[in-house]
Design a protein that fits this description.
436 residues, alpha/beta, Fumarate Reductase Iron-sulfur Protein, Chain B, domain 2, four-stranded parallel beta sheet, 24 helices, 8 strands, globular
Length: 436
């Protein structure tokens, strides 16, 4: 199948982890291209990591920590590397070492505990928080707060978070997933994630509708939780492993084949569970099997072969590759094939579509200057494409790009590719899909 060949063309577990310092990675590293500093390139960071192993550099050094945390972990260097270096694994280990050896101040430690131990793992806590944020927006309080200038009194990080907050949609209705239909050819499970149901509920609903249109039954395990990507990339290995075990338990109870994911960052993380838990005697084999079941929605539909019934969409669309779909999962062609399958849709290639947009989880909050510098390059290319719509399969990318488009006044909309497929199917009834 096309999607399988595309994945098999990459070596998922390169044997050679030794950097030969050829410098090919420099031309694709966002931070090196922005800063021009060797220490902010993959090669330079590997030098620093090696130096900590040899005792020449202390992991508690602020300089070392700054260079490690400035990396977006976009994994473009892994795609470019001729030696198969798994740079992302090196970064995970380096950040875990920093977390182990360095103590945060009281406020930072308390905030981390709230986010990583209480908020992200708890669906109820997240739903309550976003319920408050919905009220904040829809009651008119947000408009009043912004006009009053009171935000200037708050810490910069909080002001940034407030400025990035998109319009929060209604909480999604998943009744579609509970209605068996005649003609189902297979069943899958849907991975919801933690932020997706709150900020991108319409994307989940579009995913369910498109799968149903193609004869696929969907089940949603109720006990699933956050994928753990934010934990892992911040060095919180224990928290990431705990969440992985919870998800494995939740999905094992559902007797379906593939586990479909519509968030590229989550999908890349879920495909790493086998590696993450390889030393866990109870979960090693189960984690490896779980990871084998993961499919990005574009990968799954491309392998399945989407059915007839797509109607014309007269749109000029460009596609931006999410880093953790392209570099993390090796999926490039599948989403483009799906978009080209929509009659009337003109797909134009985006210059440097494989370059990071600067989102990288919460990087745009922790390193806003670097993030905006990287985003500005992306926005120039988007504006130059002449497209009306940019499609991308990751929530962080969509939030980052939409925020940049609004800031620059560029008349373009950012959507998930599945939303365009959903709209094309809905055109046959003359009814616009909910939430589009």
């Amino acid at each position: 199948m096309p999607g399988q060949v595309e994945l098999e063309s990459r070596n998922p577990e390169p044997a050679n982890l030794n950097c030969i310092h050829c410098g090919i990675c420099l031309s694709v590293c966002p931070t090196y291209l922005q800063e021009g500093k060797e220490a902010d390139s993959p090669r330079g960071r590997i030098y620093l990591i090696d130096a900590t192993h040899e005792g020449r550099v202390n992991a508690r050094s602020p300089v070392f920590q700054n260079h490690m945390h400035l990396c977006l972990e976009c994994r473009a260097c892994e795609t470019a590397c001729p030696s198969g270096v798994r740079f992302s694994q090196m970064m995970i280990e380096a950040r875990a070492q920093i977390r182990t050896e360095c103590r945060s101040d009281f406020i930072a430690a308390a905030l981390r505990r709230i986010v990583f131990s209480w908020l992200l793992p708890s669906r109820g806590s997240l739903h309550f928080l976003f319920g408050l944020l919905r009220f904040y927006q829809r009651s008119g309080i947000q408009r009043l707060v912004r006009r009053s200038g009171v935000l200037r009194l708050f810490p910069r990080q909080l002001r940034l978070m407030e400025s990035f907050l998109p319009s929060i949609p209604r909480f999604p209705r998943y009744d579609l997933a509970e209605q068996p239909q005649e003609g189902e050819t297979c069943q899958v499970s849907l991975f919801e994630g933690c932020i997706m149901p709150e900020l991108f509920g319409p994307v989940h609903e579009a995913t369910l509708r498109v799968l149903r249109k193609n004869g696929v039954g969907v089940r949603i395990p109720p006990r699933q939780t956050c994928c753990g990507a934010l934990h892992l990339h911040d060095g919180e290995l224990g928290g990431a492993r705990a969440l992985a075990r919870r998800n494995i338990d939740a999905f094992e109870s559902i007797g379906t084949g593939c586990i479909v994911v519509n968030a590229a960052g989550c999908g890349a993380m879920l495909k790493e569970y086998g590696r993450l838990l390889e030393d866990d005697p109870r979960y090693a084999e189960r984690a490896a099997e779980f990871s084998r079941r993961i499919r990005d929605i574009s990968e799954f539909l491309d392998e399945l072969g989407i059915g007839a019934g797509l109607n014309p969409l007269q749109l000029k669309v460009t596609y931006d590759d999410p880093c953790h779909l392209l570099h993390g999962q090796g999926i490039r062609a599948a989403p483009r094939r799906l978009l080209r399958a929509i009659p009337g849709l003109e797909l134009v290639e985006l210059r440097d579509a494989d370059r990071c947009c600067g989102s990288a989880g919460i990087y745009n909050l922790t390193h806003p200057e670097m993030s905006n510098g990287i985003l500005d390059e992306k926005l120039k290319n988007l504006e130059g494409s002449g497209a009306q719509v940019v499609a991308s399969g990751n929530p962080g990318c969509l939030l980052q790009i939409q925020s940049g488009l609004k800031r620059k006044g560029i008349p373009m909309t950012a959507v998930h590719p599945i939303e365009l497929l959903d709209r094309a199917y809905a055109e046959s009834t003359g009814k616009e899909p909910d939430g589009y």
